[in-house]
Amino acid sequence: MNLAVIGATGLVGRKITEQIFKRGLKPDKLYLYASERSDGKILRYNGNEYVVKKLAEGNIPHDIDFAFFSAGSEISKIFAPIFRSRGALVIDNSSAFRLFCNVPLVVPEVNGETAFFHNGIIANPNCSTIQACVALSPLDKAFGLKRVIVSTYQAVSGAGQRGTNDFYRGKNGLPPEKFPKNIYLDCVPQIDCFAENGYTKEELKIINETRKILSLKKLKITATAVRVPVLNCHAESVNAEFFKPCDEQKAKKILSAARGVVLLDDPEKGVYPTASDADGKEQVFIGRVRQDFSVESAINMWVVADNLLKGAAANAVSIAELLIKGR
After folding, report:
1. Band of the pLDDT at 63, cuts 50, 70, 90?
2. How far from the centroid of its chain's Cα atoms is residue 228's Cα?
């Protein structure tokens, strides 16, 4: 089996490559691609050295089985079809193809079966969407989702290395280069650019992708996405209203048995998830599950996950594993 990682020198690209070896995929060949400035760079994994190649049409062979993309939407739009035409199955971490009706948008714990109905490209969802869907899906199956409100608290690593750099730039009194405002010791209620309706693109991703993943086209859902001065791991306050009766204890029982979920919920003893709990982990951590007394059947919960792992790299490699096992 031959694999390729496009965007191999970025934060997510490196995590994808680490996941490949951690999960024992054992590629016969591993092709690492990046921009021209990284051409010839040496990366070391699993005791071996790999030379990064400039991403160019002439450098793409015909023997790649899976190509993991994490180089942004514009690169995916250009090069994903080329890799597909040369026999690779593309798993794309960008937003380029997520809402295409013929492209599966996959979270293995939620809708893994859809991965098998692909046309050569599978989309990896937005990081914030992934953790929300892992939390919401088992509750939807049990009680039927009626309305969802998501407020995110997103780490700087979600904006790549430049986002992390801005955190330290702010710490040193320097102006930001990636974010619209200083992020150090502050919160910025803007992730991506604003649409005409006043929502940011990040918020619209959460709304539209959640509907697609959960197969709930008419789900009433709204979102507010905020960048916070945390290095890694996204947190979310999620309010979910249901058609069927649901209370705190029922919700906790469902979530405690849900695939990919770790329930940390004993507030009286100070037990609830934070970024420190999720950092470096592949599960979604949930706590502070409680009744919303303002409506008939609803709960609030706090959802935390490593945005570079579960929100990106681990989910992408899990999709490949799912397909390999299903062959």
Report:
1. very high
2. 17
Residues 6+ apart with CB under 8 A from 173: none
Query: Beta strand pairing status for 220-227 and 234-242?
Result: unpaired
In this structure, the number of other CB atoms found within 10 A of the CB of residue 27 comes to 17
82 and 222 in a common domain? no
Query: What interhelical angle do 314-325 and 11-22 show, nearest 10?
Result: 40
Q: Write down the pLDDT at residue 327.
A: 61
149 and 186 share one domain: yes
Same domain, 8 and 156: no
Residue 181, domain CATH: 3.30.360.10
pLDDT > 90 in the chain, percent: 97
What residues make up the domain containing 66?
Answer: 2-124+312-325
Cα separation, 173 vs 176, whole angstroms:
9
Q: Is residue 127 annotated as part of the catalytic site, yes or no?
A: yes
The answer for residues whose C-beta is within 8 angstroms of residue 208's C-beta and 6 or more apart is 99
Point out the catalytic residue in the list 118, 133, 233, 234. Answer: 234
Look at strands 89-92 and 121-123 and give their pairing.
parallel
| pLDDT category of residue 128 using cuts at 50, 70 and 90 | very high
Distance, CA of 276 to CA of 268 (rounded, Å)? 19
Average pLDDT of the residues in 235-263? 97
Write down the catalytic residue from 127, 133, 233, 246.
127
